[in-house]
Amino acid sequence: MDERRGEQFLVVGPLGPHAFEDLQRVLEDVALGMLHRILPHGGQHADHGRDPGEAVAREPGRRRGRINTAGRRQRRLERMAWSMSLFVLYFGTNRRYPNLAHHTILFGPRFQGLLRDIFHGHRLPEDFSLYLHAPTITDPGMAPPGGESFYVLSPVPHLGNAAIDWEAVAPGYGDAILAALEPHLPGLRDAIVTRRHFTPADFASRFNAHQGSAFSVAPTLTQSAYFRPHNRDPDIPGLYLVGAGTHPGAGVPGVVNSAKATCDTIAADFHVVGS
Ligand SMILES: Cc1cc2nc3c(=O)[nH]c(=O)nc-3n(C[C@H](O)[C@H](O)[C@H](O)COP(=O)(O)OP(=O)(O)OC[C@H]3O[C@@H](n4cnc5c(N)ncnc54)[C@H](O)[C@@H]3O)c2cc1C
Question: Which sequence spans correspond to the domains of the chain?
Answer without folding.
Answer: 13-79, 85-212, 217-275
